[in-house]
Amino acid sequence: MKDEMIKTSRRPPRAARSQRELERRIFHLKTLYDVSQEIGSLRDIQGIMKHLLMMVMGTFGAVSGVILLIDSKRGKVEVFTQEGLDRASMGLLAEASEWEYFQELKAVSGIQILGGRGKGLKEKKEAKMFRLLSSFKVHVWIPFKKVDEDVRGGIGLGKKLSGDRYTRDDQELLSTLSNQAGVAIENARLYQDLHYSHQELLVAQGELEDYSRTLEQKVEHRTTELARATSEAQEARGVAEAYLGRLESELQSARDIQMSMVPAVFPPPAPGRPVEICATLEPARQVGGDLYDFFYTDEGQLCFLIGDVSDKGAPAALFMARAKTLVRLMVTLLRAPDGGPPTPHEIMARVNEELCRDNGMHMFVTVLLGVLDPTSGALQCCNAGHLVPYVLGRHGVEPLEVARGKPLGIRPGFGYDSTGWTLSAGDCLFLFTDGITEAMDGEGKLFGEERLQDALRSVVTEDPAKVVAAVIEKVNGFTGAAPRADDCAALAVRFSR
Questions:
Q1: What distance in Å separates the CA atoms of residue 55 and residue 303, rounded to the nearest whole number?
Q2: How many CA atoms lie within 13 A of 91 on its CB side?
Q3: Rg of the chain over CA atoms, in angstroms?
């Protein structure tokens, strides 16, 4: 009995394990985000490789590192950058361009552990790549891959300053980083090709302008040259139109990806979950910064939120995705001091801390987070600088007064409060972003809160889908053909116990 008590006392509490797992995941996410931010903003391969090697060495505490890239056209291996190699190892760099190294490096498809008890290339000590990488004092080799799984090279890391081995978690993170690097390399090469084509187009355009001026002076004697210049102009226009078409296609793909990040299927009410829900998101540009989300927790509670990022376009969409992911992580993994589920204000405080990290663009997001108990109608809400929602019920349309805190991502250390409320059977909660109330018609007039309340009064007893559709229809009818200046999001939740 005493031995059993000792064993039990040595087991780490579940909360501590969850906390360590959360911290590990956050570290992985932060590392991936940092690397993507660093290399994603670069367009030259040399800069990408230099930043990547320094960040990976710093993350894992490696004493040395080298990046090799495969040049498939010339059948050679290029030593792109290195850090921490001694003079003896530097003398071997010239050997890496031999044909045998190209063939062997191209055949390596997975992470290779050359130090400690790892397998892989070490099983083939006669392989030249093993001897070369060992000469570079490489302990772990991570290949880069293209989307079509073709190996494009890789990064080799030396031993850790701490003397520790590379763990399975290290290998998992390194594998994800290598995939990011492979995509970044491919994008950089595509960008270079596009840049060179663009420069050629500018040169051709300049030559065409000079040629046109010459034609104006000698038009009577240069009809043949004028016809050729017209043909060249049409060809250049075709190239430009094709380029713009590709850009529009890429932006549409980005919007499709953004829309796939928010729920598009709204489950009907069921026994134990007498709740109806519906939402919509309409970006003003092809990629926007508004967001909504809803999901049931492990305890059976409905968690829902709506938010508005301070900017628009692709950067706002990325910040939106980060905020949405952090909320889900905190709801799933964070525990209250008593071991129970966290309150909305505890979730918001932790998400604010994470969003403030590495926020170089100084973006922020307003969020309204609610947690509903579907068995009793008990509702807890936390408002981080967002608009006040409305309750549609037997008393008509009423604002739900919720304690309002600061938006997320401005500064760490902000505190937040949760407000309690009990929904009656048939009550509907309506959440929205300022793209609805600040929508403008052709004369610059705002849709405003009064028109929103009138729209809601006409659908007090309707289901959430009709509530959302009615509001959007009123807004579109008000703005008419005027261009949309802001993203528009709305979410309706009806408790039908």
A1: 37
A2: 3
A3: 29
CA 201 to chain centre: 33
Strand partners for 156? 66, 141
DSSP 10-55: HSPPHHHHHHHHHHHHHHHHHHHHHHHHHHHT--SHHHHHHHHHHH
Q: Which alpha helices (DSSP H) does 334-463 contain, by range?
A: 344-356, 434-437, 448-457
Q: List pLDDT tens digits, range 269-312.
A: 988 899 999 999 987 766 667 899 999 998 899 999 999 998 77
- Contact criterion met (CB below 8 Å) for 298 and 333: no
C-alpha–C-alpha distance, residues 252 and 310, integer Å? 22
CA distance 110 to 143: 7
Write the CB contacts of 75 (distance below 8 Å, at least 6 apart in sequence): 99, 102
Report pTM.
0.53
**Helix H or strand E segment including 489:** strand 488-495
CB count, 10 Å around CB of 20?
11
The distance between the two most distant Cα atoms of the chain, rounded to a whole number of Å, is 111
Ranges in the chain, pLDDT < 70: 1-14, 16-25, 27-43, 71-81, 85-136, 145-152, 192-193, 212, 215, 217-220, 247, 249-255, 257-258, 285-288
Q: How far apart are the first and last CA of the chain?
A: 50
Cβ atoms of 404 and 443 within 8 Å: the answer is no
Query: φ and ψ at 347, to 5 degrees?
Result: -65, -45
326-381 pLDDT per residue, tens: 999 999 988 878 878 899 999 999 999 999 998 888 999 999 999 999 999 999 99
For 95-131, the pLDDT digits (tens) are: 554 545 555 555 555 556 655 443 444 444 445 666 6
Question: Could you give the angle at the alpha carbon of 376 between the alpha carbons of 379 and 431, nearest 5°?
Answer: 30
Alpha helices in 218-339 (DSSP H): 223-260, 313-333
DSSP H stretches of helix in 91-167 = 99-107, 128-135
- Phi and psi (nearest 5°) for 55? -70, -40
Q: Which of 91, 46, 90 is nearest to 64 (CA)?
A: 90
Tokens 């990629």 correspond to 287
Q: What are the E-state strand segments in 46-179?
A: 65-71, 76-83, 112-113, 140-145, 151-157
Are 351 and 401 in contact by the 8 Å Cβ rule? The answer is no
CB-count burial class (<10 Å; 0-12, 13-18, 19+) for 158: buried
